[in-house]
Write a sequence for this structure.
């Protein structure tokens, strides 16, 4: 199979018919990026309904970690689906949920015992973390960072600060939420402004941080940022919550991005790449702070047995080669893009870790044109931040795939 292979300029007639039907009936809140109508996927390839084949370098927003329809993941899904599809893990027990919670508690950074709460999505994991942080500390104030993205449900949205359009007309949001800049300047503001003028540190329940900002532009923090933040939290008894929804499960070359800095969060929020595309998230907390009682929180669908089976298969693949591949091929991707930067003045920066790489262009309008042109030439990319493009392919990507992607990207710049 030739990847990519554009037979007809997208959207073709079949795609357009589906788009027309979709737009008649779906909520206008969906922010479709370009007119891709998926028929099927396999490995690194996505085929649309008109027979066009695309090279996937966005993985459904960093979700399809094992590629599309990986046989080991599909087999696990099929075997569990033949047994039972649902039985509400909030009220009853089943082995896939117990096995996954055990696995996640052992994978999470730090030697202390962990407790896991399973959700349907990343934003639900953040909501659970907000509730647990307030419940366990008996404090109300929360700190987050400008340009952060933690989700769109009301509590998570109160932490999100990547775009004003995400928050517009949904107020009032949660009270007692404060934002500071991402980086060392923000830590100065936290200690010298927030703690002095808005919230005493003994009133702050938690700080929520992305070890690498995702929606905000694939921004890697200064080397000492997370260390100093962790020290501030320890000094004041504030919980450190790492939002690893986009960075987790091998994407940066380690299971969790905070491991690059040796940081052990009190609470870890994960989702996206955990189950190769099935809806699943998790909040992993230190056992000594997971003090809530039965009924304090719950979820009808969180920890669905089929999703748990997919997650167990996905994690096995990540541990047995894909995480190492993300580190190796990620370095090659950054090198190729850095070489491109030297030739193209439109590229201002190349940054990231593993297979989470951002390319900052000179302006947002150019970024949008490049993403659309790449799509029309068979390469799937996504924007992020003010004027950046994210490269977050499945972790099965090869150096040859990188060469093809960079060649198309260079041609449409």
């Amino acid at each position: 199979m030739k990847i990519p292979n554009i037979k007809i300029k997208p959207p073709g007639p079949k795609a357009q018919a589906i788009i027309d039907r979709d737009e008649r009936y779906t909520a206008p809140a969906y922010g479709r990026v370009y007119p891709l109508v998926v028929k099927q996927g396999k490995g690194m390839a996505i085929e649309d309904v008109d027979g066009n084949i695309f090279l996937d370098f966005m993985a459904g927003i960093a979700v399809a970690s094992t590629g599309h329809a990986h046989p080991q993941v599909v087999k696990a899904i099929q075997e569990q689906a033949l047994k039972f599809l649902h039985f509400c893990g909030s009220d009853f027990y089943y082995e896939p949920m117990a096995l996954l919670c055990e696995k996640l508690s052992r994978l999470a950074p730090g030697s202390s015992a962990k407790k896991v709460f399973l959700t349907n999505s990343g934003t639900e994991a953040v909501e659970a973390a907000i509730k647990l942080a307030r419940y366990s500390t008996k404090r109300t104030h929360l700190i987050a960072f400008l340009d952060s993205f933690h989700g769109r449900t009301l509590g998570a949205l109160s932490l999100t600060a990547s775009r004003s359009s995400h928050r517009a007309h949904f107020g009032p949001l949660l009270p007692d939420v404060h934002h500071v800049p991402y980086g060392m300047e923000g830590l100065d503001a936290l200690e010298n402004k927030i703690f002095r003028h808005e919230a005493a540190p003994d009133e702050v329940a938690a700080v929520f941080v992305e070890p690498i900002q995702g929606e905000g532009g694939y921004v890697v923090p200064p080397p000492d940022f997370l260390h100093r933040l962790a020290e501030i939290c320890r000094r004041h008894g504030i919980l450190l919550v790492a939002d690893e929804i986009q960075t987790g499960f091998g994407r940066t070359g380690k299971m969790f991005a905070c491991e690059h800095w040796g940081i052990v969060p009190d609470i870890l929020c994960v989702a996206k790449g955990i189950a190769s595309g099935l809806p699943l998230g998790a909040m992993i907390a230190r056992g000594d702070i997971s003090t809530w009682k039965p009924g304090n929180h719950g979820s009808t669908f969180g920890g669905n047995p089929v999703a748990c089976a997919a997650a167990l298969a996905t994690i096995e693949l990540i541990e047995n080669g894909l995480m190492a591949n993300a580190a190796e091929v990620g370095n090659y991707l950054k090198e190729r893009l850095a070489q491109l930067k030297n030739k193209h003045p439109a590229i201002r920066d190349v940054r990231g870790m593993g297979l989470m790489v951002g390319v900052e262009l000179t302006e947002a309008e150019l970024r949008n044109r490049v993403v659309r042109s790449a799509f029309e030439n068979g390469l799937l990319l996504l924007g992020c931040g003010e004027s950046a493009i994210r490269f977050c392919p499945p972790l099965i990507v090869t150096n040859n795939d990188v060469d093809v992607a960079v060649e198309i990207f260079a041609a449409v710049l």
Remarks:
- The longest strand covers residues 347-353.
- The mean pLDDT is 97.
- The chain is about 40% helix and 15% strand.
- The radius of gyration is 21 Å.
